[in-house]
Amino acid sequence: MQALAGVDLDVAAGSICAVLGRNGAGKTTAVRILTTLLAPHAGRAEVAGFDVVRDAARVRARIGVTGQNATVDSMLTGRENLELVGRMFHLPRAVARERAAALLERFGLQDAAERRADGYSGGMRRRLDLASSLIAEPIVLFLDEPTTGLDPVARAGVWRAIRELVDAGTTVLLTTQYLEEADQLADTIALIDRGVVSARGTPAQLRAQVGRARVRVTLPDADPGRVATVLDALGPRALPDGRTISVPAPDGLADLGAAVAQLRSRDVVVQDVALEHPTLDEAFAALTGAAAPAPQPAAADTAGAAGAAVAR
Amino acid sequence: MIAVEPLDAAGRVRFAVADVLTSVRRYLTRASRQPDLLVGSLLMPIVFVVLFGYVFGSSIAVPGGDYRSYLMSGLFAQTTLFASAAVAVAVATDMKEGVIDRLKTLPITRSSVLLGRTLAGVLTGLPSLAVMIGCALVVGWRPQHGIGEMIGAFALLQLFGFAMGWVGVVIGLHTRSPESADAIAMLPAFLLGFVSNVFVDPARMPSWLQALAQWNPMSAVVAATRQLFGTAQATPAHGVWSLEHPVVTTLAMALLLLAVCVTIGVRRYARVSR
Q1: Could you tell me if residue A246 is left (phi over 0), alpha (psi between -120 and 50 degrees) or otherwise beta?
Q2: Cα dihedral sign for B253, B255, B259, B262?
Q3: Taking CB atoms and an 8 Å cutoff, what residues of chain B touch A75?
Q4: Quick one: closest CA in A to B5, which residue?
Q5: What one-character DSSP code corresponds to residue A70?
Q6: What is residue A279's predicted lDDT score, i.e. its pLDDT?
Q7: What are the phi and psi torsion angles at A66 (to 5°)?
Q8: Nearest-by-Cβ selection for A65 from B18, B29, B105
Q9: Which chain B residues are within 8 Å of A89, Cβ to Cβ?
């Protein structure tokens, strides 16, 4: 089966791009192609200026990868894991040692440094995994669902670390199922649905793509007379839904003010009037088709087509 | 950071060697963290000597007399089969833990991980070989030829063990869990180990099995070491070419096994992931 049908991504150096999609949308396949783990059957991708197929070795020397599951060697200690990865990037021994120590401290693992990784908690393993993908100071960092399964405190820790990296100039491509994560971290978001980028833009642009703000009026009950009065007050574009009525508010606060004035002039009792901005959740639902069940690919044998450039 | 990259061909070779050594070191560290496995591999030779040297050996006769002396060359080779199963388990474990996924995103020579694993397999097999040699000396095994032949015999055993390690790699890369890798790797270990001249004289087997036993690489390596040690060369070659020229046969079979398994293993490694 084809996991990707056409993915076009372009990530500016020093920014965070979030690839957002449901389970099975093709996020991981895209990351596997960009990290040289899988060759695309068609199309091409460049990372840090190098083609992921023809120049795979050069790409590998410039990227850091943290997969969905922590891939640390559970029988080695935290420090040994970091130094091992450093040595595999051909860092001089002293440099690997020095950076390992610095990373252990930065990720709050210094007390566990000499303990075997199989005794680590899930959050600690994830932090160790992230630290090992940073030891060679990669130009581009790939994070495949870096916070899935983490508790809120651990998640906030990973977010903080990601922001610091980007401030220091690293380019990050992050996949996530969490809208909040994309909203919090990303400069740009690419929405992948069934192997295709179905929308892209800044978080604010994506919200705008779904619709503008609305004024939402909530009544104490769904009394037909009262609903009719409110519909009359809000104009022809107002839509009722039970005891709430909403109307587009392209001018935001000005529209809210006008709506309140209209309601007051008709002397109708309402429970609440509010200006609502569409959430990224709604954007996600609207853009991917909320009712569509997430497709479950049997296996991503076929990588499909991809066109991508990360940090060029 | 500017990525660390080899400047020329010599640099690439230096990096490749460093990658293999890093990988060997990782596997040796892992081995040192599993003392129970080490104890098991050290006790195994003693169990085998007692079991086959005395329990079965008391009722097994080989032409030429001294069964325990006959047996020991076979048991030296037998330890390499178990080492091969250990390699299969280790490779399957790396896959299961996802370590292979990370290794594949690192700028290391692709084959260095597998080469490191098989070399580490040879190194970790040395302590149990030492115990086996100790047992052999205790039960009366005495090499009759010079030190050169003795070194040659052990070198041949290590080469055979290294080739069997690559068989383990292929098995490990084709199984889905360490448990199934262990179960599957034991099949060739038992088949090669028992349908051979390790424990008995194949001349007494039914003729179809005899052919298998005579052309089994285990039989070749065992016949070769018996020849080099000059110990109870009890198996008459029966006009079988492979057993009349066991050293050449062993070398050829080990190299053939390596050519096939390295090719399959490296290819498979490039494609697998958890």
Answers
A1: beta
A2: positive
A3: 29-30, 33-34
A4: A61
A5: -
A6: 67
A7: -125, 115
A8: B105
A9: 3-4, 106-107
B29 vs chain A: nearest CA distance in angstroms? Answer: 8
Q: Indicate if the pLDDT at residue A293 is higher than 60.
A: no
Alpha carbon distance, N-terminus to C-terminus of chain A: 31
**Arithmetic mean of pLDDT over chain A:** 81
Whole-number Å distance between alpha carbons of A171 and A62: 11
Angstrom distance (rounded) from CA B8 to CA B23:
23
Say whether B105 and A60 touch across the interface (CB within 8 A). yes
Question: Taking chain B, what is the end-to-end CA distance rounded to the nearest angstrom?
Answer: 30
* Among A283, A20, A259, A85, CA closest to B103: A85
Residue in B105, B110, B117 to test binding to A, most A beta-carbons within 10 Å = B105
ipTM of the complex: 0.86
Closest by Cα among B235, B249, B245, B198 to B77:
B198
> Beta partners for A245?
A217, A240
How far is residue A17's CA from residue B212's CA, in Å, rounded to a whole number?
Answer: 61
Mean pLDDT of chain B: 88
- Give the CB-side neighbour count of residue A182, counting CA atoms within 13 A: 29
Which H or E element spans position B35? Answer: helix B35-48
Nearest partner of B168 among B114, B108, B98, judged by Cα? B114
Element (H, E) at B153: helix B147-174
Q: Which of A124-128, A234-238, B59-63, B104-108 has the lowest mean pLDDT?
A: B59-63
**With contacts defined as CB-CB under 8 Å, which chain A residues touch B110?**
none
Calculate how close chain B gets to A249, using CA atoms only, in Å: 49
Measured between beta carbons, which residues in chain B are less than 8 angstroms from residue A73?
26, 30, 97, 99
**B107 vs chain A: nearest CA distance in angstroms?**
5
What are the structure tokens assigned to B222, written together?
């065992």
Report the distance separating Cα A257 and Cα A255, nearest Å.
5
- DSSP for residue B51: I
Contact B102 A67 (CB under 8 A): yes
Determine whether the interchain pair B106/A76 forms a contact, defined as Cβ–Cβ distance below 8 Å: no
Determine whether B157 is exposed, middle or buried from the number of CB atoms within 10 Å of its CB (0-12, 13-18, 19+). Answer: buried
pLDDT tens across B165-216, in order? 999 999 999 998 999 999 999 888 888 888 888 888 888 888 889 888 888 9
User: Where are the strands (E) in chain B, listed by range?
Assistant: none
Q: Report CB contact under 8 Å: A89, B107.
A: yes
Instruction: Tell me if A73 and B99 make a contact (CB, 8 A cut-off).
Output: yes
Nearest chain A alpha carbon to B273: A37
Structural domains present in chain A: 7-207+285-310 (3.40.50.300), 212-277 (3.30.70)
B98, closest residue in chain A (CA to CA): A71
How is residue B76 annotated by DSSP? H
Q: Which residue among A69, A75, A91 sits closest to B4, beta carbon to beta carbon?
A: A91
Between CA B76 and CA B83, with CA B81 as vertex, the angle to 5 degrees is 95
Contacts of B103 (CB under 8 A, 6+ apart): A88, B94, B113
The angle formed by the CA atoms of residues B69, B144 and B229, to the nearest 5 degrees, is 65
CB B114 within 8 A of CB B169: yes
